[in-house]
Amino acid sequence: MDDVQDKIFDIIAKERRLDRASLTRETRLDEVDIQSVDLVEIIFAIEDSFDIDIPQEEDAFKLETMGDIVDGVRRLIAEKEQAAANA
Amino acid sequence: MARVAITGLGCVTACGNSVAEAWPAIREGRSGIAEITGIAEPLKIKIGAQVRNFRPDEHFDPRLLPAYDPFSQYALVAAREAVADSGIDPGAADLNERLAVVTGTGIGGSTTIDASARRVYGEGQTRVHPSTVPRLMPSAATSNITMEFGIRGPAFTVTSACSSSTHAIGEAYWMVRSGRADAAITGGSEALFTYGSLPPWWALRVMDPFSCRPFSKDRQGFVLGEGAAILVLEDLDRAKARGARIYAEILGYGLSSDAHSLLEPSAEGAARALAGAIREAGLGLQDVGYINAHGTGTQANDVNETQAIRQVFGPLAEGLGVSSTKAVHGHALGGTGAIECLVTAKAVADQVMPPTANFTEPDPDCDLDYVTEGPRPKSFRAAATNSFAFGGLNAVLVLGTVA
Predict the structure, then answer these.
(1) Of A2, A39, B148, B298, which residue is the least packed, with the fewest Cβ within 10 Å?
(2) Is residue B46 less than 8 Å (CB to CB) from chain A?
(3) What pLDDT digit, counting tens, does each position of B205-250 carry?
């Protein structure tokens, strides 16, 4: 566990009223009945929390498991920090 | 019950600011989608179907212009065209109080709302323009049309998101059909290419960043449009008596609500509206040869709409042509139903089905004939035009040829 994963699991558990302890990296979104409408709200909460933009182009951001979201968000945070360092 | 004819058409769209300009583009599938211009701030949404070459000072008295939000401007210009096209005299003593105005819009004066919010929140101003309220109210376009032509009959505005102007035309059709009015000026308008209006659409993650490709396997969503379309409806006997040109007859209007979701569509609700419109028209399913689809290009809508059409038509769905013209004029939200009703009226009058433009590859879940090769001449008695709004509010009109 780390901060990013913790925060993301918090957000998803809160948004979908799920048992936080039941979530793992392997949990699939469809397993916990996250529909596309729910996902839009979860993505917004994550974007707002980390101040990042999750890309909308197809295949640009994998959204099948909790681990996909965590890895994708980590990548976006790293890209953001890199861009800030280069600026 | 009166029969109801469409005797006048007018429009302002991304593919032309008159029917003479827009209809050939829609019929040929020449898309009006392009890079968004006119907004200084950086945008996440890069493409849209914006109205172009529209210079308000060419259309309006400079003393009146400050009172018109762009959504009213588009509606007024389209209404002038439609009234001139029909040949009716809205001010005539025998029509003046018997003429209805019903328009639809999803939001109303978005440009004005945005400008006012920018001054108050963004610039910390305490004063805003005194025309802010009369510009932004969703009923402003209707009011402005009544004043422009001196119309004194029943008038109001309908709002039901993406079905707004289809509901407006349907209600106007019923006013003429029931005898409450002899004629009606109806349609809808939307204008929300403003910096503050775009992020909420982007947040829904239903916008295609590249193009609008309805029913294609690789579709990623809709492309925002804007504009207006206005139709003149008239008691058929009255229209015939004065020798008016009749584009089509409105035969049926079906409405339903999904009671399902604010965002997700339901095939069951859509099918009930479509079936209801055909039932009211008194037609057999085989009489309907063309459907102008809601066809937004979102994953959800296009599959849902395909299922709804199959539910209603059964095996007869194979003989239907179904096209979405949103790839050409964009999704003009509260104005889109009116634009598509205008397109359907022209399709009926000219006996041609406009294509679904930008089609790439078939989706196994969207398996109807989407007229992807270009305009296709076809002989048909009637056509339907579908509107399915966020929040599950559905409206369908059926238009037919006039013998």
Answers:
(1) A2
(2) no
(3) 999 999 999 999 999 999 999 999 999 999 999 999 999 999 999 9
User: Chain A closest CA to B208's CA: distance in Å?
Assistant: 8
User: pLDDT, tens digit, for every residue of B360-383?
Assistant: 999 999 999 999 999 999 999 999
Domain tally for chain A? 1
Q: The tokens 């490709």 sit on which residue?
A: B213
CA atoms within 13 A on the CB side of B197: 22
Q: Which domains does chain B have, with CATH numbers?
A: 4-241 (3.40.47.10), 252-400 (3.40.47.10)
Instruction: Determine, for residues B300 and A36 on separate chains, whether the beta-carbon distance falls below 8 Å.
Output: yes
Residues spanned by the domain of A10: 3-86
Q: Nearest chain B residue to A48 by CA: give it.
A: B203
Q: Does B198 touch chain A (CB under 8 A)?
A: no
Question: Residue B403 pLDDT more than 80?
Answer: no
CA distance A48 to A46: 5
Q: What ipTM goes with this model?
A: 0.78
Chain A, nearest residue to B220 by Cα:
A58
Q: Which pair of tokens denotes residue B359? A: 């089609």
Contact B264 A36 (CB under 8 A): yes
Report strand pairing: B382-389 vs B393-400.
antiparallel
How many Cβ atoms from other residues are within 10 Å of residue B287's Cβ?
Answer: 16
